[in-house]
Amino acid sequence: MLLALSLIYSGLSFAADTDAPAPADSTDTQMQTITVSGTATKDAYTAPSTKSAGKLDLSLRETPQSVSVVTRALMDDFKLDNINAVLSTTTGVTVERVETSRTYYTSRGFDIVNFQYDGVGQPTTTGNIGGDLDTALYERIDVVRGANGLMASTGNPSATVNFIRKRPTATTQASASVTVGSWNHYRAEGDVSTKLNESGSVAGRVVLVHDQANSYIDRYSPKKDVAYAVVDAHLSNDTLLTVGHTYETSHNKSPMWGALPLYYTDGTPTNYDVSTSTSASWGYWNIDTNSTFAELNHKLGNGWAIQGTINHIDSKADSALLYVYGTPVKDVGGGLYAYPSQYASKQRQTLADISVDGKFNLGGRQHDLSFGYSWSRSRVSDLSLYGQGIGTEMLGQSAFDGTYPMPTFDAATDGSSYEDYRNTLFLAARFNLADDWKLLTGLNSTRARSSGESYGTTKYKSASKTTPYVGVVYDINRDLSAYASHTEIFNPQSETDANGVPLDPVEGKTTEAGLKAALFNNKLNVSGAVFKTKQDNTAEQAGYVGAKAYYRGVNAESQGFEFDSSGELTKGWQASAGFTRLTSLKGDQGQAVRTYVPRSTLRVNTTYQLPGVPQLKVGGTLAWQSEIWIDQGGGIKTTQESYATLGLMAHYEFNRNLSLNLNLNNVTDKKYLTSLYWTQSLYAAPRNGSATLSWKY
């Protein structure tokens, strides 16, 4: 916080001494008007405005909630080619990489389950991200921390991740790059945007990616392909139609299902090579996703506009996997058992959203208003085929050599089939109470219901709730603001109590207050906040009635503070940095909960263009987190000590068209566990690097 205040006041001093005009727009990218407006240089680490926190297009300083922005420039500089890499650099977010092909995320102590595309929510049915979600399609990624009662119909009071897609540009642009990295990593990427008719009223953009590699993990070999096409058609001066489609595959050979055991039968911790894997040589996990969206924007006149969006997502997964469970015997081996399974799933989601935005006059002042309706339907079906030989002991070290034979998958079957519907009405208003006072308020009224079964357990749930949002911003001067906000959110759940009655919904609340500054002609955004977040009635298994588990609702609360900054510190020096401290994360009885969540995290990413050699840019990234631990039962505690990782980069432009990027990750070759979210874990990648040759037109 001291660093935040120091930057704010040093920036205020600088700003007071300069009357330089705002920088001219130096990019031809047409950002989507529903999400982003304003100007920013192509190399910026911050953004001029966002709609990710409250439906209304506001600058970061005017937004009464904590928001971090990961721009295209930051992603390109540090080769953040997937969502795990992006969120690992983001203030207040922890990436829980529990397996090679499945990841959870947390913020402020709670799971992140809200993901949006251009501000339209995509309900999650599993609470995690499967596969390797590529970031080449996105102009930037916004992360709003805390409950997001206006933008999200349901969810947790953790954070909302908003992916903002690339759009066609006004002029022809093209780029291509080839990356070669450690463990035979090869990546090719292309991005072309051009007008499609002589007048330029129709323009299109195509992004293509092929990425494949071996891995530091034995036998594991991931591969993905991405194709994205989008067309903008100006039907009139006031009407814009946008249609896009994404095809993305993530095909993984010998992935891990589950991870490594963390202790021996004598209670001492295991310590494997970082390459150790429990996967079988025949294992695979393939995910294929098709996503189509259409968006219509129309200006109604007098500052009013309407937008309608529809998304359809079709995702399929197919896998044959080996799970290894049990407790190994130290120095002898054995004690681990096989659980092979074949799994297939289908998920179809349709999302629709319509909103109206505009300005109105009241009391001699102009105010902002947004209202609308959203609807979603998710259908999920999956089938598990269990392999012969479940429970077979894997003697010696055979659990780690990949030699377990592929069985026939006909021992038993099980699966799921359920539907989820959500309907939401929302209203948001920003009242200009005085020249230096703004009040942002609104309501979100949602009905959510589900039906069907999953592995013999009902998925029925039905709940309705109206959640409020209120935030106030006071402009201390033209650069510095103080704010406070309170938001709520809820999430229905299908778990039942001892009487078979579904539990009431999870309810989340976030209250925060802080300072925000936009410095150096809005090139640098700095914020500091204190927050309190509560999540009540989360289902926790409490026992069994016969063979059926029953649950009880438990409460948890986190408190803390954070600092976040992004943008240009001085000419040629870009930085994105943040520190989060959870001073408390406790349950009903004051006990520590979610001990796998680090109580303190630091993220720093910075680049500097050398004045004497303007073609050369150098930079580094630092990520640090405090100690985490998990109670394994029986008096055994697994601990991952605090650690820091360092990354370095260098970018050299040979000419205006050709450049070379060198990246080195985990420079100190630190060995650490990726997560303690589960009672198993795996090791993070050791020191590795890549070289990327890029061409642009």
3D structure, described in words:
- With 697 residues, the protein is mainly β.
- The chain has a single domain, classed as Maltoporin, Chain A.
- It starts with a helix and ends with a strand.
- 44% of the residues are buried.
- A hairpin with an 8-residue loop joins strand 12 and strand 13.
- The radius of gyration is 25 Å and the shape is globular.
- The protein contains 3 helices and 35 strands.
- The strands form 4 sheets. The protein has a 22-stranded antiparallel barrel. Strands 1-8-9-5-6 form a 5-stranded mixed sheet. Strands 2, 3, 4 and 7 form a 4-stranded antiparallel sheet that branches.
- It comes from Duganella guangzhouensis.
- It is a multi-pass membrane protein.
- This is TonB-dependent siderophore receptor.
- Its main location: membrane.
